[in-house]
């Protein structure tokens, strides 16, 4: 199956299943020993976001809370 076919099939899933699939794919990246090369602008964006988080760690919400808000709005 090609990436295009896989993408089309994934979009046919119900929203909750797509969220679960996205989470599983995202979590699988932690298991990869090699990180992709980042362009300089992507590195700058990530560095800024990390600095913002370090400056105000209480400003965000835990993932489980955000996920619950999203799922409850569906």
What tags apply to this protein structure?
single chain; 74 residues; mainly alpha
Structural features, described:
With 74 residues, the protein is mainly α. The chain has two domains: 35 residues; 38 residues. The chain is 68% helix and 0% strand. It is built from four helices and no strands. The mean pLDDT is 92.
Provide a quick synopsis of the model.
With 74 residues, the chain is mainly α. It is built from 4 helices and no strands. The longest helix has 16 residues, at 40-55.
Q: Structural class of the secondary elements?
A: mainly alpha
The total strand number stands at 0
| Number of structurally distinct domains | 2
Gap between N and C termini: 30 Å
Large-scale geometry:
flat
- The topology string of helices and strands comes to HHHH
**Mean pLDDT over the full residue set:** 92
- Percent of residues in β-strands: under 5%
Percent of residues in helices comes to 55-70%
Low-pLDDT residue spans: none
Radius of gyration: 16 Å
Question: Helical region count?
Answer: 4
Largest sheet: none
Topology at a glance:
Layout: H1 3-11, H2 15-29, H3 40-55, H4 63-72
């Amino acid at each position: 199956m090609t990436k295009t076919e896989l993408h089309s099939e994934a979009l046919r899933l119900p929203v909750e299943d797509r969220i679960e699939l996205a989470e599983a794919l995202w979590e699988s990246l932690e298991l990869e020993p090699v990180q992709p090369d980042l362009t300089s602008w992507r590195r700058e964006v990530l560095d800024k976001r990390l600095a913002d988080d370090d400056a105000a760690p209480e400003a965000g919400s835990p993932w489980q809370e955000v996920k619950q808000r999203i799922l409850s709005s569906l």
